[in-house]
């Protein structure tokens, strides 16, 4: 790309916002020209407003940038990455989209809208076309495209490989979700130390809906939800990063477990997604050890973008069971949004 595309990060000081700043450092296509946050941070240098919690140091260019208000009047970029809380995103993201900004959002506010895609380029890149309907219907020059909640992310990649090869009838899934998924400072230490919390607010409904939307078919500009049953339990555990999901699945047809292993290990995303700068390499890593994947050992596979699957075996009630691991703030949040923005550019849809 001859000239980099100027981009903004909205809510750049939080857990996901910091990941955006880290992952956009030296990005081959995008250059960060604006960082925004709440009134608490506006006007301060980013280095002062942001309590940096990542192990890589804060990039020097970011430390010196002044934090801007999260308003379209203050920021005019063709692309903005949103790490806004959902209630704020509800009014702010459409205002940006109306002025011509394409918002790649982590927030849940618009994921259920029929004209807003939930994208994983290695799963449903073709759903990006809904942006055309969205612009037409809402009169926007820009757009809102979303990535799924971080628990659905790796699970849907693994389910996609299985769904495309054999069809899925039923999925029963149980998550063990990392602390960084709750933002910063997140869950109080006195609540989570020596403990498991058997609820992550709203997450079960998100997993049960978003997986079906992403694995659904695009028909006449809207999505028909995939026709399988799914039940989710979601739990918070004392892991820093990396969401683990145990899944039992019933297939449309009976197959040997070796065939499922081949479908997972050999899975390739749609052609358009494969060479994008943030594409996971490989898309899925299938592990054969009896004690993997583990968050601490496996979350950075493929720079945190690869979905790691292990413990694949027959299920005595349904057909198969497996364990899926995905990095929640990289593949499940900032890295996923950047991957989506790359798909938007490659699809020629950055401009209306
Ligand atoms: N963490 C994950 O793994 C994950 C994964 C997928 C999706 N998400 C979603 O991503 C979003 C961000 O999550 P997070 O974990 O980064 O949360 P977080 O660590 O709590 O950060 C919240 C951010 O929002 C900003 N903010 C708060 N109120 C604002 C306002 N009125 N106007 C503008 N900015 C405001 C904060 O700025 P100040 O610092 O100035 O207060 C901060 O930058 C949420 O919608 C979350 O559900 C998170």
Q: Cα-atom Rg, whole angstroms?
A: 19 Å
Question: How much beta, percentage-wise?
Answer: 15-25%
From the helix content, strand content and strand pairing, which structural class follows? Answer: alpha/beta
CATH superfamily of the largest domain: Dihydrodipicolinate Reductase, domain 2
What is the level-2 CATH architecture name of the largest domain? 2-Layer Sandwich
Strand order of the largest sheet: 3-2-1-4-5-6
Helix content: 25-40%
User: What are the low-pLDDT stretches, counting only 5+ consecutive residues below 50?
Assistant: none
Cα distance spanning the termini: 20 Å
Secondary-structure element string? EHEHHEEHEHHEHEHHEEEEHHEHEEH
How many strand segments? 14
Look at the structure and give the mean pLDDT.
97
């Amino acid at each position: 790309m001859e000239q980099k595309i100027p981009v903004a990060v909205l809510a750049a000081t939080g857990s996901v916002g910091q990941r955006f700043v880290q992952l956009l450092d030296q990005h081959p296509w995008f250059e960060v020209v604006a960082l925004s946050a709440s009134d608490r941070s506006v006007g301060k240098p980013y280095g002062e407003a942001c309590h940096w919690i990542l192990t890589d140091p804060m990039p020097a260019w970011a430390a010196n940038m002044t934090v801007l208000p999260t308003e379209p009047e203050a920021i005019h970029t063709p692309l903005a990455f949103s790490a806004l809380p959902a209630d704020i995103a509800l009014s702010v993201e459409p205002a940006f989209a109306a002025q011509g900004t394409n918002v790649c959002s982590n927030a849940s506010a618009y994921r259920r809208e029929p004209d807003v895609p939930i994208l994983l380029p290695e799963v449903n890149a073709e759903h990006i076309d809904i942006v055309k309907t969205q612009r037409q219907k809402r009169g926007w020059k820009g757009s809102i495209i979303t990535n799924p909640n971080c628990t659905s992310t790796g699970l849907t990649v693994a389910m996609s490989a299985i769904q495309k090869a054999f069809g899925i009838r039923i999925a029963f899934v149980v998550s063990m979700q990392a602390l960084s998924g709750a933002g910063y400072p997140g869950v109080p230490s006195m609540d989570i130390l020596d403990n498991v919390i058997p609820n992550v607010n709203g997450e079960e409904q998100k997993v049960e809906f978003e997986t079906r939307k992403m694995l659904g078919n695009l028909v006449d500009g809207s999505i028909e939800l995939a026709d399988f049953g799914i039940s989710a339990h979601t739990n918070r555990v004392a892991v820093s990063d990396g969401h683990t999901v145990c899944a039992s699945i019933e297939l449309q047809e009976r197959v040997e477990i070796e065939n499922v292993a081949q479908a997972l290990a050999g899975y390739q995303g749609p052609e358009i997604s494969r060479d994008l700068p943030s594409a996971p390499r490989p898309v899925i890593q299938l592990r054969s050890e009896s004690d993997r994947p583990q968050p601490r050992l496996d979350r950075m596979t493929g720079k945190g973008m690869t979905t790691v699957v292990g413990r694949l075996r027959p299920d005595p009630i349904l057909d198969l069971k497996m364990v899926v691991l995905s990095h929640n703030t990289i593949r499940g949040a900032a890295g996923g949004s950047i991957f989506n923005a790359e798909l938007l550019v490659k699809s020629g849809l950055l401009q209306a």
